[in-house]
Amino acid sequence: MLHTSTRLPGKSWLHALQVDLQYGYSLSPVEAEVLARRVQQMVDERSGMDRATGQITYQAIALSERAGKPLATCRKVAVQLTVLADDDAEVLAKHGSEALRRLRVHRLVTEAQLQGGALSQEDLSLLLGLSLKSIKRIFASYRAQGQRLLSRGELCDIGPGVSHKVPVIRKYVQDLSLPDIAQQLGHHGLQSMTRYLRHFALVMVLQDRGLTPEQMRSVVGISVSLIEQYRQLYQELQGPEYERTLERLKGVAFCPPLPPLYEDEPLREGKKGALR
């Protein structure tokens, strides 16, 4: 009987690949072994076996995967994440542990997205050993400073995070034109931003009429989570400086959308670029 240490190599994926190459493609045992080892080398390189000190390889959900798809069936990408960088010790010494946590969250989110992956707040909680409450607080602090840091839930408009649509609406109501908003925030086409504004306008009107978020959903056609965020934003914008803009937005809530031919100006009375 073969000893366990003798049998185990025969169960490895490398051996299985070698057998497939040998019998499936009529390769000699030597050719199959050489090719299998080359495949293993390429996989190791792609999966970060040569990653830098302080980095880990993590399987993140691909950015292309949208909301509503089971996580088990989502495409994953291997991303290299810098959990410990050279200057982390200096940040800790000069600015404290909270600043270091903020820096690490920002770094991991950015690194993952640059490599085609999206990290959820739960991913970050696991990777950094922080509570989900702490991660949420860090994201909230970046939003308060007007910085764009998006978890997977926010990128896909799922979960309780603040949608990436909210900053677009806030900047528009603050009298910034749609092209300027697109330049500042990126990844937002003019037609998409027009759609955000129309949905927000509908939520405002329905809120004034006393409808619940669940009732609004059937009218607006967006998630209850996003409706709640729009309702909160509407509450935040209750002030004389925004009153005229909000009333004009409400006026186009139920108008049929037209192709946006002139979207180089904000939606203001007497200017091109209106939703109607």
General description of the model:
- The chain has 276 residues and is mostly helical.
- The chain folds into two domains: 53-160, no CATH class; 165-251, no CATH class.
- The protein contains 14 helices and three strands.
- Strands 2-1-3 form a three-stranded antiparallel sheet, covered by helices on one side.
- The protein is elongated and about 80 Å long.
- The N and C termini lie far apart (81 Å).
- The model is unreliable at 1-11 and 258-274 (pLDDT under 50).
Q: How are the elements arranged and paired?
A:
Elements (H helix, E strand, L loop, with lengths): L3 H4 L5 H12 L4 H18 L8 E8 L13 E7 L5 H8 L1 H18 L2 E2 L2 H8 L3 H13 L7 H4 L9 H9 L4 H8 L4 H19 L4 H8 L3 H13 L6 H9 L25
Antiparallel strand pairs: 1-2, 1-3
Helix pairs in contact: 2-3, 4-5, 6-7, 9-10, 9-11, 11-12, 11-13, 11-14
Query: How much beta, percentage-wise?
Result: 5-15%
Strand order of the largest sheet: 2-1-3
What is the 3D form? Answer: elongated
Number of strands: 3
Q: Class by helix and strand content?
A: mainly alpha
Largest beta-sheet details: 3 strands, antiparallel
Assembly annotation? single chain
| Average pLDDT | 77
Give the helices and strands as they follow along the chain: HHHEEHHEHHHHHHHHH
Whole-Å distance between the termini? 81 Å
Helix content: 40-55%
What is the total number of structural domains?
A: 2
Cα Rg = 25 Å
Tally of DSSP helical segments: 14
Low-confidence stretches: 1-11, 258-274
